[in-house]
Design brief:
14 helices, alpha+beta, 18% strand, 5-stranded mixed beta sheet, 38% helix
Length: 447
């Protein structure tokens, strides 16, 4: 039977008006681990007629072999191509005929996850279909799907205004790390992939003892446990433990500066190697990004409102499973050059390190950050995806524990974390300049 875990703190935020009334009245997650290692998480949301259902494999683009980047995303595509029991297209047809909506999937750097929202009375169909495509997927139309991934890469990266710049910056920042390539892979890497390569990736990444399912809706625990054991529990357990990935995932720390051209407005970016998911310094850095970003953040007030050198300016702590990055980004305005935006960032960071953070400013940033996080939990599908993503990063309980950890952060901890991780000798500063022919229809390309 499911093991019931403690509810997360609802905080005083809701009463203070930081989040919509009823958005978060206590999160209760129940966990069931099947004999084959497959874990099932459920959240009961009474009075709903639909169940947000999904599952996750902790195999993303960073798990691609270096010579065949994009393989994880290709496998995601192929997981929709049918099984011994289902012809190509029947998965979506069966869901549609059952009244399900939102069938989709996504490949991130650290994980791939699949989801749909189904009527509660058709929940057994979800268990059957998902167990069936995990038991023996047929990777049909491999060559055509490779072409589709290449077309997707062309549209999202090669032809996008900042796509080539984004890829160049990631490659420079992450260097030899598997985080250097995008989930869509590098151009041409999938050409040599065959069915054997796809099946090898699937066997490594989609083992039952690595998978997690999440269901959010009006659920009968006994019925869900029975269905989980019957369908997901029938997947064969691996005979050996999963192999350990011994590659280095850290960015290459060095004081570097790049100048790139782009069919986009002038902008600046500054990137620092930071910390991975659930590292103690991740929470001060997340709160630092909240202090700096948004309409009431320091960067907007200074660069956009007062100095009028930027249309927008923000900062973000991005924790991944095995590393992290802290990124500042600003788009130029008023004739300011990208170098001016880098200098403005240096000024703002120096000012933050030089003086204590006022208590009122810190609480305003904290309340905004917590309200945004809690507001997302109100939607069953968003909660389901958040649980899957956190589990893929290393711990689904972060959904419960994150509010308390953010509440505990102090001003001195923010400044100490900034001193440790936002150091000039480890950063990559990027100046992006609008290409002169950008307004005449010339295609984008990597600098």
């Amino acid at each position: 039977m499911f093991r019931r875990l403690r509810p997360a703190c609802a905080l005083l935020l809701i009463a203070a008006g930081g989040a919509p009334a009823g958005a978060f009245d206590g999160l209760r997650v129940a966990e069931l681990e099947l004999p084959n290692g497959f874990r099932v998480l459920t959240v009961d949301r009474p009075h709903t007629s639909m169940v947000a259902a999904g599952w996750m494999a902790p195999a993303g683009s960073a798990d691609d072999p270096a010579e065949t980047t994009g393989l994880g995303h290709l496998v995601e595509h192929l997981m929709f191509k049918g099984t011994d029991n289902l012809r190509d297209g029947e998965l979506s047809l069966f869901y549609s005929e059952a009244g399900a909506v939102g069938l989709d999937a996504s490949t991130l750097r650290d994980l791939t996850f699949y989801w749909v929202t189904v009527p509660v009375e058709r929940l057994e169909l979800w268990f059957w279909l998902e167990a069936d495509r995990l038991r023996r997927p047929l990777f049909r139309d491999l060559e055509r799907e490779k072409e589709i991934v290449a077309e997707e890469r062309k549209a999202r990266i090669e032809a996008a205004p900042t796509g080539p710049v984004d890829e160049t910056v990631d490659r420079a920042f992450w260097s030899d790390s598997p985080y250097a390539w995008p989930p869509l892979g590098r151009g041409g890497d999938l050409a040599a992939v065959d069915t054997a390569g796809v099946e090898s990736f699937f066997r490594r990444g989609y083992r039952p003892d690595r998978l997690t399912a999440v269901l959010v809706g009006a659920l009968d625990p006994a019925r869900v446990a029975g269905l989980a054991r019957r369908y997901l529990g029938s997947l064969p357990a691996p005979e050996a433990p999963p192999p350990i990935d011994e590659r280095s995932f850290e960015a290459a720390p060095a004081d570097r500066r790049m100048t790139l051209d782009c069919s986009c407005p002038d902008e600046a970016r500054v990137l620092y190697p930071s910390v991975p998911f659930r590292h103690p310094d991740s929470y001060p850095l997340q709160l630092l990004s909240a202090l700096l970003s948004g309409s009431s953040g320091r960067l907007h007030r200074s660069l956009v409102v007062e100095r009028q050198i930027a249309f927008s300016a923000s900062a973000r702590q991005h924790p991944l499973r095995r590393a992290g990055e802290f990124v500042y980004r600003a788009v130029a305005a008023g004739g300011a050059a990208p170098a001016d935006l880098v200098a403005a960032w240096d000024d703002e960071l120096a000012a933050l390190l030089a003086s204590p953070i006022p208590a009122e400013e810190l609480e305003r940033a904290r309340n905004g950050l917590l309200a945004d996080g809690l507001r997302r939990l109100a939607d069953p599908a968003a909660l389901m995806k958040q649980l899957l993503i956190y589990d893929g990063l290393g711990e689904w309980r972060e959904v419960e524990q994150w509010p308390d950890r953010i509440q505990a952060v102090t001003g001195p901890q923010i400044r100490d974390a900034a001193r440790r991780h936002l150091r000039p000798e480890t950063r990559l500063a990027v100046e992006v300049r609008r290409r002169r022919d950008a307004g005449r229809g010339h295609p984008d390309g990597a600098p």
